[in-house]
């Protein structure tokens, strides 16, 4: 799943390695051009949204039926609201799994996993790997470090293969000397 998706911006990222910079909410500030390749996990995205909807529905039903069950305890409206809020919090936690995204162009790669967003110019990326038996891809960095790429997952099969090929192509193009 590639295309120009510049609508999603994230201001909660942080960078812990290299000279990459934290996401400040805009593509050009990161070195991401106007037409980046965007990759997102399809199966994980669907699973997260469906699971969150089911959790909210279950907690809403439990909250509604709470006063009807004879347990010897008196449940009030505050207890019902608390059950619904608890369900919404759990659903929000599940939706964090829908965050992973990769945006890449000729200048570099931005990886947004569950919590943090990292941006690296291609010069800092040594390779893009999908080890045998791994659940997701990773980028290899200097000093034997790597960063998981949760947006490219094995369960997405051909989508993951196309995504890895695209990222490797961009990485390879950045390593070729410029013709002039």
TrEMBL record:
<protein>
    <submittedName>
        <fullName>PH (Pleckstrin Homology) domain-containing protein</fullName>
    </submittedName>
</protein>
<feature type="transmembrane region" description="Helical">
    <location>
        <begin position="81"/>
        <end position="98"/>
    </location>
</feature>
<feature type="region of interest" description="Disordered">
    <location>
        <begin position="1"/>
        <end position="28"/>
    </location>
</feature>
<dbReference type="Pfam" id="PF10756">
    <property type="entry name" value="bPH_6"/>
</dbReference>
<keyword id="KW-1133">Transmembrane helix</keyword>
<keyword id="KW-0812">Transmembrane</keyword>
<feature type="transmembrane region" description="Helical">
    <location>
        <begin position="43"/>
        <end position="66"/>
    </location>
</feature>
<feature type="compositionally biased region" description="Low complexity">
    <location>
        <begin position="1"/>
        <end position="22"/>
    </location>
</feature>
<dbReference type="InterPro" id="IPR019692">
    <property type="entry name" value="CFP-6_PH"/>
</dbReference>
<keyword id="KW-0472">Membrane</keyword>
<feature type="domain" description="Low molecular weight protein antigen 6 PH">
    <location>
        <begin position="99"/>
        <end position="168"/>
    </location>
</feature>
